[in-house]
Write a structure and sequence with these properties.
The chain is an alpha/beta fold and about 350 residues long. It has 13 helices and 13 strands. The strands form 4 sheets. Strands 8, 9, 10, 11, 12 and 13 form a 6-stranded mixed beta sheet that branches. A 3-stranded parallel beta sheet has the order 3-6-7, covered by helices on one side. A two-stranded antiparallel ribbon has the order 1-2. A hairpin with a 5-residue loop joins strand 1 (about 70) and strand 2 (about 75-80). Helix 6 (about 180-190) packs antiparallel against helix 7 (about 195-215) and helix 8 packs across helix 13. Keywords: Coiled coil, Signal, Transport. Belongs to the bacterial solute-binding protein 8 family.
């Protein structure tokens, strides 16, 4: 082979090597520019498409897992597990138990929880609300997967934001009145709709039978519920707790002094205006003893028609201030027993 051919071949190989180096260098530069945010090659999946696909996959995964997105009574949209297991619902323990569910922790005032539920809540730790709502750290230790707040006041002052970071949080405007509505909702949240329906059906039957007995014994006469507490004395209206049971469910007459209000303050001066033939008295958590003694020993109290006729009954603060079907059933029983004897 001539020297010319050898040199020509060598030159050709050198040019090919240089061209290959340029191609490789161009590929590296293209990859680098893509990392810096330049357009991706046509025909390749874009990062936006990948993100959309990931979001769609997450949505499909949520649907397949049975998660549900619902809106609470304050307008918060939340996603909850198909069947939540670790429930924290302060002051709704009664409703949970009626559905066969134990909460991870229970409401308490100091060391005292809802006395009438303690047998069923045996072993359930207490969280103290006496000085405000418990710290996020305290609640986190129970690992809740659903939080239910029985009133919107529990969600105020930034508390909702704190709770919702711990677990999906459903808020009632006020679950302490119409238990039929709140229990139905809780049943839906927990996947316990059948249990809720059965419990409500039994309660409605109980109320119907009680109404028939009370109509014959009481008729159109009025009933007052007076609550003695450390902050004062109040006449309970028909919007919540025992007042809802007595005046709304059982349909017993209510004093004009409270009318459609949640409650009305009672003092010695306006006591003679109390238009009631029967009076239920509640010593709230044993903190109204002094006020109760002072009022009931007064000549004004003793001059009232209901008092003269022996129609004053002290009832248990344990469940007359309770919120749930267990408490409501006990209130119905007490009302029938005391007013038909």
């Amino acid at each position: 082979m001539s020297k010319f051919l050898v040199h020509a071949k060598s030159g050709f190989m050198a040019r090919m090597s240089a061209l290959l180096c340029c191609v490789l260098l161009g590929s590296v530069l293209t990859a680098c520019s893509m990392k810096e945010g330049e357009a991706e090659p046509i025909g390749q999946p874009s990062s936006a498409n990948v993100a959309e696909g990931s979001a769609a996959a997450d949505e499909n995964s949520a649907k397949s897992s049975g998660e549900r997105t619902i809106t609470d009574e304050l307008g918060h949209e939340i996603t909850i597990p198909a069947e939540p297991k670790n429930i924290f619902a302060p002051n709704l323990e009664d409703s949970l138990l009626r559905l066969g569910v134990k909460p991870v922790a229970q409401w308490s005032n100091g060391k005292r929880g809802h006395d009438y539920l303690q047998e069923e809540l045996k072993g359930v730790p207490k969280l103290d609300f006496s000085e405000g709502q418990p710290s996020p750290e305290a609640l986190l230790s129970y690992n809740p997967d659903l939080i239910i707040l029985h009133t919107q006041t529990y969600a105020q002052n930034g508390n909702y934001e704190i709770y919702s970071k711990i677990a999906p949080t459903y808020v009632f405007t006020n679950a302490s009145g119409n238990i039929e509505n709140s229990l139905t909702t809780i049943g839906e949240l927990l996947g316990k709709t059948d249990e809720a329906n059965k419990a409500l059906q039994a309660y409605r039957q109980k109320v119907k039978e009680a109404q028939e007995k009370l109509k014959e014994a009481v008729g159109e006469k009025k009933v007052a519920i007076i609550r003695f507490a450390h902050k004062g004395v109040s006449l309970m209206g028909g919007q919540y707790l025992c007042g809802y049971v007595v005046h709304r469910d059982l349909g017993l007459g209510i004093s004009d002094l409270v009318g459609n209000e949640n409650s009305a303050s009672i003092s010695m001066e306006i006591l003679p205006e109390l238009d009631a033939d029967y009076i239920f008295v509640i010593n709230a958590y044993g903190q109204g003893t002094e006020r109760m003694k002072e009022m009931m020993e007064s000549p004004i109290w003793k001059s009232m028609t209901a008092v003269k006729q022996g129609h004053v009954y002290e009832v248990s603060n344990e469940y007359w201030l309770g919120s749930g079907l267990i408490a409501y059933e006990k209130i119905v029983d007490d009302t029938v027993r005391l007013l038909t004897q």
